[in-house]
Amino acid sequence: MDDQTKTLKYLVSVEKLADEILSDKREIVLLDKRRNQNREALRDLAKSEQKKCWVTVGSVLVKHNMESTKSLLEADQKQLDIDINTLRSNLKVKVNNLRDLEMQAPVPGLMLVPMSNRETEALSKSGLIH
Fold first, then answer.
1. Which segments of 48-128 does DSSP mark as H helices, in order?
2. Which residues of 23-40 are buried (b: 16+ CB within 10 A; e: fewer)?
3. Which of 4, 47, 64, 130 has the most CB atoms around it within 10 Å of its CB?
4. Partners of residue 61 on adjacent β-strands
5. 57 forms bridges with which residues in the sheet?
């Protein structure tokens, strides 16, 4: 009986973590779609020569100043970038935790980070990279 409850707890924890991973992936896709829509809107605003534009706030259309609309969209873009990067970094940890639960080796190269400008400059000065 004890062995069955242990197995059940193990399976529940694996399924719960896998569900969180899938949920985070869906959230990243949705945030990325919104980020692309904001990028398109910013590009359209940059091309426009009008002083005011229509903005949807929920289900309401509001006529708004172009400059403040651009600043709102840019602030939203920054927040979306932060949210997406946070989800992606947490996703890497969750994937490694899931692989640990499944008793598999971590995904090779998953936790790699790019070199900083300072590190790249140091390597180019030493002659290791060109």
1. 66-101, 117-126
2. ebeeebeebeeebeebee
3. 64
4. 56
5. 60
CB 79 within 8 A of CB 31: no
| Block residue for tokens 């992606």 | 88
Q: Report yes or no: 87 and 31 within 8 Å, Cβ to Cβ.
A: yes
Give residues with Cβ within 8 angstroms of 25, minimum separation 6.
91
- Which tokens in the block code for residue 108? 């090779």
Place of tokens 């896709």: 29
**Is the entire prediction scored with pTM above 0.85?**
no
Contact predicate 64/52, CB 8 Å: yes
Angstrom distance (rounded) from CA 28 to CA 92? 13
Residue with the two structure tokens 């990325």: 32
Residue written as token pair 């809107």? 41
In tens, the pLDDT along 5-36 reads: 999 999 999 999 999 999 999 999 999 999 99
